Amino acid sequence: MTEPLVVITDSDLPGDEAERILGAAGLRVRRASCRTAEEVVEAARDATALLVQWAPVTASVLDRLDRLRFVSRLGIGHDMIDVAAATARGVAVANTPDYCVQEVAAHTIAMVMALARRLPVLDRAVRDGRWSATGDGAGALRPSRATVAVVGFGRIGSLAAAHAAALGFRVVVHDPNVAEAAVRAAGHEPVELDEALAAADVVTLHVPLTDRTRHLLNGAAIARMRPGALIVNTCRGGLIDEAALAGALASGRVAGAALDVFEEEPLPAGSPLRTAPGVLLTPHAAWYSPDSLAELPRRAARQIADFLRGGPVPSIVNPGYAAGRTGGGR
Predict the structure, then answer these.
(1) What pLDDT, in 10s, does the model give residues 263-288?
(2) pTM (2 decimals)?
(3) 87 and 324 in contact (C-beta within 8 Å)?
(4) Which helix (H) or strand (E) element contains residue 86?
(5) How many whole angstroms separate alpha carbon 139 and alpha carbon 92?
(6) In this predicted structure, what is the pLDDT of residue 328?
(7) Of 41, 84, 49, 40, which is closest to residue 68 (Cα–Cα)?
(8) Helix, strand or coil for residue 238?
(9) In the chain, what are the domains?
(10) Is the pLDDT of residue 192 over 90?
(11) How far apart are CA 184 and CA 202, in angstroms?
(12) Per the record, a Pfam family (predicted)?
């Protein structure tokens, strides 16, 4: 009997830990470098499972992978996978939800504090020959007099909220998927989105990118924020309308933004965010530490092996996939 085939559609991570784990589980492994849906189909026609970093797994792709049973995302977000289509076809999808929670929360708070204390502006002022704490530092925040709005209260959002509260910030939380009692139990205030935007000195985003959340911060939402507010995004670039944000930064409506993620990555050379005032940019690096780099491929590969041997996979994001399989989805 031929062992099941796992196709690694794409990965820019160093090393071969995923291949080693999958091979030790008795699975065949094929590594590809897919960027398009057609390349995924070509590489994975006979695959039982996929290990996906950024390659698109669309409904059309799923229709043509007749043997596919499981997709493991090399990361937390899974917006490159059509989860609804996978569910309808009886294909399980799992992400790797907790490999970098500490790193992203720490990166978030570093960005919050850099903006709150005007570090990018002060750094540039010194390099340009100025030496004025009260001039270039105008607008610096005292944490105990400032509010951080955490939009999304999952693993990362809840830890970022705890960090912000520990620094003395008032923390308000918007997450319609989390019970208000749970937010209050953590010591924070649950609020609606409009209230969060209106109250916040700093807004930090921690929600998945879906059709509903795309451009969550658009021009209208930014207009509802208090003048001079700050924005932090370590989640998904598509949550923010970048053109609207650039305009708000240029006008001074938004005093600063710290961004680790972008609608197009790498950030295009011509993006107005590169030259907008008060902006701190990092290259989708919030997830990274040597520890998280080691854990990511290990966890993503192990859950493939666990699933294919019939073991539990707690990180499956579409538990209804089994109904699709029994209902004739495959």
Answers:
(1) 999 999 999 999 999 999 999 999 99
(2) 0.95
(3) yes
(4) helix 83-88
(5) 49
(6) 64
(7) 49
(8) helix
(9) 5-99+290-326 (3.40.50.720), 101-281 (3.40.50.720)
(10) yes
(11) 20
(12) 2-Hacid_dh
Mean pLDDT of the chain: 97
Specify the DSSP element, H or E, that contains 248. helix 242-251
Task: Please report, as a single letter, which amino acid is at residue 248.
Answer: A
Buried (b) or exposed (e) across 238-255, using 16+ Cβ within 10 A?
bbbbbebbbbbbeeebbb
How far is 96 from 166, CA to CA, in rounded Å?
A: 27
How far, in Å, CA of 140 to CA of 150, rounded?
A: 20
Cite the active site residues.
Answer: 236, 265, 284
Strands 49-52 and 229-233: unpaired
Handedness of CA 279, 284, 286, 290 (dihedral sign): negative
Q: Which two tokens stand for residue 307?
A: 């699933």
Q: What is the pLDDT of residues 56-94, one digit of tens each?
A: 999 999 999 999 999 999 999 999 999 999 999 999 999
